[in-house]
Amino acid sequence: MSASPSHTVGLGASAGGLRSLQRLFARMPADLGMSFVVVQHLPAESRSALAGLLQRQTPMPVTDATDGLRLESGRIYLIPPGGCMTIDGGRLVQARPARGNQPINELFTSLALEAGERAIAVILSGTGSDGAMGALRVADQGGLVIVESEDSAEFSQMPQAVLKSGAVDRVLPASEIGLALQHYVELPRFAATLSENGYGPADDLEAVLELLRVHGGLDFGHYRPSTVVRRLNRRIALRNTSLADYLEVLTDDPTELDALYRDLQIGVTHFFRDEAAFRRIADLLELRIRELEPGQELRIWSAGCATGEEAYSLTAVANDAFRRAGREPLIRVIGTDVVPGALEAARKGCYTLQAVDNVPEEVLRRYFVPVGDGVAIRPELRSQIEFIGHDILGDEPFEGVDLISCRNLLIYFTRLAQQKALSLLETALNQDGLLWLGPSETAAGWGYGFEAIDSRWKIFRRSGPR
Asked: Can you tell me the distance from the alpha carbon of 102 to that of 100, in angstroms, rounded to the nearest whole number?
């Protein structure tokens, strides 16, 4: 039996994609230890000759993807025409097409969750925007995103859509992607000297962090060293260079410095993530609303809001809770982040159909309106939210907040930074206010006034004296 892959590569293509796939695999080394899953937009009724055409270009076995098939290294899997498949537990899984029928996004999104930093998304020639949202998910998990260059792709609309998402690491002709992947997996990684709370002596690494701080104002010294080192190693591997040489690149090339800065920021978010958790939050908010004095507003802070999906989800839930309590909604929501581009997208409130795929139909009708090929937040909901640039560690906290959502942000901080953040969040909350953290985070045992009221969904109540 073949070994499990070191990395899993998802390849998405549409119009003109056959020629791009042939050029790519003709120069793809066969011994990289990777598995390749190909999805191309083809009608369900078509009989694809893709397997035979690709097999002429590569010694790697080319296999039709079937439900339950385990991924193995050194193999190429072709998702059937019109099919939709995801990856779960190292196996291909037949999936029902989601709203908008975007099988590349479906594959890439599952790949991001399955493989994390071992995920690679490649977007080749095609029309439309399928793949853009999924590529963003891969990038958010620390994976690699490559798109075919405009002079190589017969149709560049699909690669351009991914480029606009800001998730792309390399833009290459199809024939050069194989060599780039070889460099990516074979270049030795550096390892910083790490301690529980931060970095040990590493002059080049400290110089990189200082360049980043001057460039964008964010101190990545507060981030877990493992996160910074892994993502920095990824950028170094893409350059096929060393840490010392990469430091010189950053000094001379502001474009690469900005790319690294964006790469290190945390931007994972989507609407109603963990639906059961949102139902629990909805019940708690309704109880809180019934305790409010007449004319008193409900205040919510979505910390690390990225492009706004969770902030809007919380606002919708709060509006529904007010209705169930028989009261007129009086809500103020603050969404904060350190990424100006993400905040700009959040303020626009426009999203693709793929982004709202898991939003219940009733919520879609009540809070969204169709706009072009996507949807937009209704103005009355958008008016309840203010998006603000804010560093949870460097700026003063807000005051009088009833609910703070800070999910999957503290996990990226060092222990000292976590302690500081929790202290500031405690200061921001009203007495009995709610703190909602991510599944791998906790506010218990830190010496602050938080008591757990839902251990599964990591919801805490501020119980200490003010």
From this structure: 6
Encode pLDDT of 20-46 as tens digits.
Answer: 999 999 999 988 999 999 999 887 766
Beta strands 350-352; 374-377: pairing state: antiparallel
Measure the CA–CA gap between 190 and 209, rounded to whole angstroms.
15
Is 14 an active-site residue?
yes
pTM assigned to the model: 0.74
Residue 50 has pLDDT above 50, yes or no: yes
**Catalytic residue (choose from 20, 73, 130, 402):** 130
Catalytic residue list contains 41:
yes
Q: Which of 7, 14, 302, 402 is catalytic?
A: 14
405 is catalytic: no
Q: Which residues contact 313 (CB under 8 A, 6 or more apart)?
A: 271, 272, 273, 278
Taking the mean position of all CA atoms in its chain, how far away is CA 235? Answer: 17
Q: Which sign does the torsion angle of CA 59, 64, 70, 71 carry?
A: positive
pLDDT at 444: 65
Sign of CA dihedral 42, 8, 134, 57: negative
The CA distances from residue 158 to 18, 32, 68, 419, in Å, are 14, 27, 29, 43
For the chain, the C-alpha Rg in angstroms (whole number) is 23
Catalytic residue among 20, 35, 41, 302: 41
The full 3-state SS of 66-90, as one line of letters, equals: CCCCECCCCEEEECCCCCCEEEECC
Separation of alpha carbons 175 and 171, rounded Å = 12
The pLDDT tens digits of the residues spanning 183-212 come to: 888 766 665 544 444 444 456 888 888 999
Highest mean pLDDT pick, 42-46, 117-121, 339-343, 462-466: 117-121
Six token digits for residue 292: 């409010």
- Name the 3-class secondary structure at 40: strand
E strand or H helix at 289, and its extent? Answer: helix 275-291
